[in-house]
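Let us work through a complete example step by step.
Step 1: write down the sequence.
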Amino acid sequence: MPVRRTPRRTAPVEEPEEEEVPESRRRRILRIADVNSVPVLTILFAVFTVAAVYLSGQLIYHLRDLLLLGLVGGFVTLILNPVVVSLQHWGVKRRGERWPLSRSSHS
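Step 2: predict the structure and record it as tokens.
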């Protein structure tokens, strides 16, 4: 006959309490600013907008030579287009035979 043992008495299992997650610095700053009626998000938006304008200005400043070449090239194209159209009207082909200067450089 098997020996019947009584179950061990264990302490009642307590459900673990929810650990309180410490408040992050960002959330704490936003909460304090909200309590004090400080428009933090508006201030951050303004700061990032000024930074973006400044950085785009720096980019344009450093690329000014290329931008100037493109601008001048566009004006030259606008000025020469009526001349090219009138030459085509007179029968000069836009493509076809190479000009003598281009033959010597591409040979």
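Step 3: interpret the result. The radius of gyration is 39 Å.
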